[in-house]
Amino acid sequence: MSQTLNFDLNTFDKSYVEFYTSLKRYQYNNNHSDNINIFSRVEMSNDKINLSGYLKLKSRYFATISTINNFEWNHTFIPGIEIDYTPYKTDNFRLKFFGGINYFGRKYTDNEINSNFSVISGVGVNLGELYLKLGLTSNVEINRRGQSFIDSENQFLLFEYGNFYTNVYSAKLKYNFNNFHLDLTNDFYPYSGGNENLLNSNLFYSNKLFKDKLDLRTGVIFKYYSGLEFKPSIENDVRIKKNVYQLDFYVGARIGSANVSFTLANLFNRINYDTYLYPYDDRGGLLNVVSRFTIVWDFLN
Fold first, then answer.
1. How far apart are CA 152 and CA 239, in angstroms?
2. How many helices (H) and strands (E) does the chain have?
3. Which of 175, 212, 226, 248 could form a disulfide with 197 if both were Cys (CB 3.0 to 4.6 A apart)?
C-alpha cells in the first residue's frame, strides 16, 4: 500500500509525503518468517534547497517448528534527514552541496541492541558534459560484535562487543563526449591495519543507428581493488595486501523488440579471490575467458 500527498508551503515550491507498508510471509518446510516493512518520506524543495526526511521500520519474526521449537525476532529502526543546497546554477555550470545523517538501530530476541550512526557530506559540480562529486561518509557502530575467520579450523570466532569508527571517502566522475561516455567511481577506506581502495569504471559508446532501429551500447568495464584480503589455506587468520583488477568487454543492443547482449569477462584471466575460499575460475588464457550471451524478446508491450 502506498500513498502520495501533495501540498504547498510558502518556503518551498514542491513538496510531498510518501507512505508505504508491506507484510510478507516466507514458508519453507516447517519454518516460516514474517516480515513487516513500513516506510515514510517527506520531501520539500525549491530552486536552491531540497530537504527530505524519512523513517523505515522493519520487524522480522522467524519460527522453527521441530522437536525443539525456536522463535526469534528482530526490529530495525532507521530514521534520517538529507539536504541538498545549490548556491549557483547556470545553463553550463552548477554547484551543489549535500549532507545528511541517519541512525540504524536493531534489537534482537535476547534484547541485544546494535546501533550505527552515519553522517554524509560532500559537493558536486556540473560543468558542461562533466560531472564531479566528492563525498565523505563517517560511521560509528556501537555495541557491534566483531568476527575473525580461522582457515585451519574453518570457523568463525566472535570477539567481544565493541565500538567501531570508520570513514569512507568517495569520488564520482562522469563525462560525455558526443556518443562516448565515461562513468568512474572510487571509494577509499582508511583503516588502522591498512587502507582499502575500490575503483569501478565504465567506458562505453552509445548510439542509435539505422534510422533508430538499432540501439547500440558497447564498452569496457574495469575494476581495481587494493587493500587487505583473506588468503586461503594458511593458519591463524592471516591477511595479505593484494592488488586485484578485472577487465570486461561487453556489447548490448536493442533491435526492434529484442534485447541482445554479449560479454567477455575477466580478459586478464586473473585468479582473484572473490570470497574467503573460492577464486574465479582458471580459464587458461585470453581465448578461454568467460563469455555470456543472452537474447530477450518483448512479446507484449
1. 14
2. 0, 15
3. 226
